[in-house]
């Protein structure tokens, strides 16, 4: 069952809350590959959001490989599962490669990561 709650008081934009909620449900196994998700209009009405807000979240999820749209059949959780972990791993590897090229040590690299996470 696909359920999402959007906080209209949050500083995080609604489309981003929706995007993150879908990713969290994929990671937890609540949404599995092939699960059909509501149409843009249906979800917008359910969440009291503008259809463009939901459409933006869906577009970003599709670009990230989390969703796949099958024309008139609708949108589904992609069969690739959770591509965000793969992307995160590639980003981490690229970061380590850059740090090594710059001649920085691991402690300095971790300080940069911690600083970026606090931002």
Automatic annotation (TrEMBL):
The keyword Transcription applies. Pfam families: GntR (PF00392). Keywords: DNA-binding, Transcription, Transcription regulation. Residues 12-80 form the HTH gntR-type domain. InterPro entries: Tscrpt_reg_HTH_GntR (IPR000524), WH-like_DNA-bd_sf (IPR036388), WH_DNA-bd_sf (IPR036390). It comes from the Bacteria. Gene3D superfamilies: Winged helix-like DNA-binding domain superfamily/Winged helix DNA-binding domain. One of its GO terms (molecular function) is DNA binding. CDD domains: WHTH_GntR (cd07377). PANTHER family: HTH-TYPE TRANSCRIPTIONAL REPRESSOR YTRA. This is DNA-binding transcriptional regulator YhcF, GntR family. It comes from Nocardia amikacinitolerans.
